[in-house]
Specification:
Elements lengths: L1 E5 L3 H14 L3 E5 L3 H6 L7 E3 L12 E5 L6 H10 L4 E4 L7 H13 L3 E4 L7 H13 L4 E7 L4 H4 L5 H4 L9 H11 L5 E3 L7 E6 L3 E5 L20 E7 L2 E6 L2 E6 L9 E2 L4 H13 L13 H10 L3
Parallel strand pairs: 1-2, 1-4, 2-3, 4-5, 5-6, 7-10
Antiparallel strand pairs: 7-11, 8-9, 9-10, 11-12, 12-13, 13-14
Length: 312
């Protein structure tokens, strides 16, 4: 299978392009409105380049189209790709900016028998995969908590943290990964409760079988359990409680904690390597292997939660 790239900004250049080069996947075309970006993509040796999706050729063979675009562009670009015969697509999150747009795009995807994946890279982190495997062995979890300890100020994240510019809440962009992790670990929860505070980001989200808590910089480092055993102030921790055990995962480590154990040793420690996770994700799709990624339609839950957060 070949790949094609739509949108060659920093994310495509820094995350996907290195993986495509390492895996030696042939690149059919690269599309971007900026000629300087197209020139920067030349090391990938695409068969052709285009400034606009309308200029792309009709598809006549298996190709995975990878898209990294501004949030509001996916609903415009994806129908055009489908009309040209592209049937295997991978987009960055969020799946849409509201439920109306999501439902309209979902009908287009379903009616054309297109497979559209939403990139969920954290599902491919080794520590999170180990956490999910351990959770299956423990049985149904009583609670899943996800703490994202980082600033959501505009000064730190630019337009992504400004609803007026992004058209969305933090759960659409910066918090989407936490929401997706809870969904993935909880096993397709069917409902949620959402509340919010006017303090700096403090949004608890309770799901039927999961709970997410997204906090600001003032959240203590890994609930003071890890002392110096992991990197200072890891920005993300996933906590799963089942019976007498508590499992805690960060992007680089997994801990099993008994209630009497205040300083656990990590069972799995790996240097963080986003490239490795993207290699894994792309290889599953390209090989048409069963993948941890959910197809587009299953992300409606994410959009429903994120859209609700805008009403608070």
């Amino acid at each position: 299978m070949h790949v094609a790239l739509v949108g060659y900004g920093a994310q495509m250049a820094n995350e996907y392009a290195p993986s495509i080069s390492r895996m030696r996947i042939p690149v059919d075309f690269i599309c971007d409105v900026n000629p300087n970006r197209l020139a920067a993509a030349s090391p990938l040796r695409p068969t052709s380049i285009a400034r606009h999706v309308d200029d792309l050729p009709m598809c006549d063979h298996d190709v995975l189209v990878v898209m990294t675009l501004p949030h509001d562009q996916y609903s415009l670009v994806i129908p055009k790709l489908i009309a040209k015969g592209y049937r295997l697509l991978l987009m960055e999150k969020p799946a849409a900016l509201n439920l109306v747009t999501f439902d309209r795009l979902s009908r287009t995807v379903t009616n054309s028998c297109t497979t559209l994946f939403v990139s969920s890279k954290r599902r491919f982190y080794e520590s999170y995969r180990a956490l999910k495997a351990a959770a299956v062995m423990l049985g149904p979890a009583r609670q899943i908590g996800i703490n994202v300890s980082r600033s959501f100020r505009r000064s730190d994240f630019g337009w992504r943290a400004d609803a007026a510019l992004s058209g969305s809440s933090v759960l659409y962009d910066l918090g989407y990964h936490a929401l997706d992790l809870a969904y993935w670990l909880a096993g397709d929860p069917s409902g949620f409760r959402l509340s919010a505070s006017d303090r700096p980001i403090d949004i608890p989200v309770s799901l039927e079988r999961a709970a997410i808590r997204i906090t600001g910089n003032n959240w203590p480092c890994a609930v003071d359990l890890f002392s110096d055993r992991v990197a200072p102030s890891p920005f993300e921790q996933v906590v799963l409680r089942s019976g007498a055990q508590t499992l805690v995962a960060t992007p680089t480590a997994l801990f099993t904690i008994n209630h009497c154990d205040k300083h656990p040793d990590p069972e799995l420690v790996r240097p963080f390597n986003l490239g490795r996770e993207i290699d894994y994700m792309l290889s599953e799709i390209v090989r048409r292997a069963p993948t941890e990624l959910d197809e587009f339609g299953r992300h409606r839950f994410h959009i429903a939660v994120a859209e609700t957060s805008l009403l608070l």
